[in-house]
Amino acid sequence: MGGFFEVTKMVCNDRLRKVRIFEGLSEAQLLKVEELATEERFGKNENIFRQGEPATSLYVVMKGRVKLLRHAPSGAATIIEIYSTGDELSAAAIIEGKSYHATARTLTDCTVLKMSAQNFRKLLSEWPNFASNVMKELGQRYRELVENLSSLAVYKVEGRLCKVMANLARRYGIYGDCRGVILDLALTRQDLADITGTTLETTIRTLNRLRNDGLISWEGKRFFIPDIKALEALASS
Predict the structure, then answer these.
(1) Which of 97, 195, 224, 233 is in Cβ range 3.0-4.6 Å of 79 for a Cys bridge?
(2) Count of CB atoms situated within 10 Å of the CB of 181
């Protein structure tokens, strides 16, 4: 797997309450999740699971950032989604009962919850409130996937990049900085190129143009977005 990897038992259900698929679960239910789950820690740029492997476990990001990569037969990889604290990674593959649809690779050091597919399915069948949470999460994922595919088909490169940055800022942005909403997902320029379906060179030129227009700024891999609505308006123009 890589350099840094550790497995421990879940020890605090306060963190579970912040995970969307566990929202509204009772104290007894959260304790049961803790009993059935372990925590695994991964270093940066490690695979949590690989596309095509049997979907044997549910994974939930408890801390850190993860990118989901879809590999083409040619070997080329496309980033189809970015996930952060509170996001589950593999429920759809388990419910389908087949292999993982994509590769989950860490962008930062990460802590993830791991539960066996068998136990996950058991909880789905026994807890209607949990099953409802999972269905809502998968429905949201489907809607976001459709929107992302539409962006690739309809928008030019600048529009796609603006749309991606605005969506990520709304989901994971940190407010309170005078320079704008902070987007701190450890994304490289190549990651952004992969997400938007373009080249690294085009992505860099587009980012520089957006910076010159005052729509975005950055320090290293940390981006600042002063006006999310302005980015969205440019994407749709």
Answers:
(1) 195
(2) 21
**Tokens 């069948």 sit at which residue?**
125
Nearest to 186 by CA among 168, 203, 200, 204: 168
For 2-32, write each residue's pLDDT tens digit. 455 555 555 467 789 889 999 999 999 999 9
Dist CA 51 CA 102 (whole Å): 4
Contact 87, 60 (CB under 8 A): yes
pLDDT in tens, 88-114: 999 999 999 989 999 999 999 999 999
Compute the distance between CA of residue 62 and CA of residue 91 in angstroms, rounded to an integer: 15
For residue 183, the tally of other CB atoms under 10 A from its CB is 23
Given the structure tokens 């539960």, which residue do they identify?
115
CB 78 within 8 A of CB 101: no
Q: Residue 190 to residues 33, 100, 102: CA-CA distances in angstroms?
A: 37, 24, 18
Task: List domains and CATH numbers for the chain.
Answer: 5-151 (2.60.120.10), 156-236 (1.10.10.10)
- Cα separation, 229 vs 98, in Å, equals 40
191: left (phi over 0), alpha (psi -120 to 50) or beta: alpha
Please count the helices (runs of H) and the strands (runs of E) in the chain.
9, 11
Question: Is 183:168 a contact under the CB 8 Å cutoff?
Answer: yes
**Cβ atoms 86, 61 nearer than 8 A:** yes
Q: Is 89 helix (H, G, I), strand (E, B) or coil?
A: coil
What is the rounded CA–CA span in Å between residue 134 and residue 60?
A: 12
